[in-house]
UniProtKB/TrEMBL annotation:
Residues 205-285 are annotated as: Disordered. This is Pr6Pr family membrane protein. Residues 234-272 have a biased composition (Low complexity). InterPro entries: Pr6Pr-like. The chain crosses the membrane at residues 39-62, 74-96, 108-126, 133-154, 174-197. The lineage of its organism: Bacteria, Bacillati, Actinomycetota, Actinomycetes, Micrococcales. Keywords: Membrane, Transmembrane, Transmembrane helix. It comes from the Bacteria.
């Protein structure tokens, strides 16, 4: 299972890096777009975050180390952002005539908006080893989109360009309309982040370690007790007594009564005779 997960993540890394490099051709090869505009797209930011999360996940999985909580959180954020980016682009593409915009979708853009979001969801849901995340992660997922929105609005007002038409006040009818779009996107991001965090509370996929269960088992086990030591207040184990011979015991098969063994003297008792009295004294020491 580990080999399959590593191979899938390495393949996704190669595809994601290829898509970003190909998408950047307009800025560094053909010079048909500005690099500052290209790297202002939310899709590009989410793809960068997914690449970082997958790279760290590959290193942990390949070395056999359990996934840490912060890495699961990073993967959850990358999954949330790529999913939102792909879903929003799909809605815009399906309603291009309604919005009055023409969308050019090259192969690299198809990979960034459709292939990577699907893989990110499958990797997060099916790959073993993820940790149980806190519900506060849902609110953390809104921090970067809020900062990105502020940056986009400020920069757009300065340079006169916005990466998405619904953030351009001149195209949608003012900042009130922009706020309505932003509120709708915020609710959608919260919903996707909530479902992503809820997925970490489902039973772990077989085939990988469950770090949360291992930590709970270690805490419940408590400190180990050295071998051979009794718990305080525990009674010692009973030692079987040797069969005592009566004053006269019959020899088996003869019918002749054998004389009883002579009682041990004081010297024999002090020399370590294994009588019940001496054993009780020995346990008391």
């Amino acid at each position: 299972m580990r080999v399959v997960v590593v191979a899938a993540r390495v393949s996704a890394l190669v595809v994601a890096i290829w898509a970003l490099v190909s998408r950047a051709d307009c800025a560094f090869v053909t010079r048909t777009c500005l690099g500052s505009n290209l790297f202002s797209y939310f899709t590009v930011h989410s793809a960068f975050l997914l690449i970082v999360a997958l790279l760290l996940a590959v290193l942990h999985t390949a070395t056999g180390r359990p996934e840490l909580g912060w890495l699961t959180g990073l993967r959850a954020l990358a999954t949330t952002y790529t999913t939102v980016s792909g879903a929003v682009f799909a809605v815009l593409l399906a309603n291009a005539e309604l919005f009055g915009h023409l969308f050019l979708v090259p192969r690299s853009s198809q990979v960034l908006h459709f292939v990577l979001p699907v893989y990110a969801l499958l990797d997060f849901l099916l790959a073993p080893g993820r940790n149980r995340l806190r519900w506060a992660t849902v609110w953390v997922a809104t921090v970067f989109p809020a900062l990105w929105a502020v940056y986009t609005l400020v920069r757009g007002r300065m340079v006169g360009w916005y990466p998405y038409f619904f953030l351009d006040p001149a195209l949608v009818g003012g900042y009130r309309a922009v706020g309505t779009y932003a509120l709708g996107l915020s609710m959608f991001i919260l919903a996707v982040a909530f479902l992503t965090v809820a997925a970490t509370r489902l039973p772990a996929v077989p085939g990988g370690p469950d770090p949360g269960r291992a930590r709970r088992r270690d805490r419940s086990a408590g400190p180990s007790r050295p071998a051979g030591r009794r718990r305080p207040g525990a009674r010692p184990a009973a030692v079987p007594e040797p069969a005592a011979r009566g004053p006269e015991a019959a020899a088996p098969g003869t019918g002749v009564t054998a004389p009883a063994a002579p009682a041990p003297g004081p010297l024999a008792a002090e020399a370590g005779d294994p009588s019940p009295r001496n054993r009780s004294i020995g346990w008391g020491r």
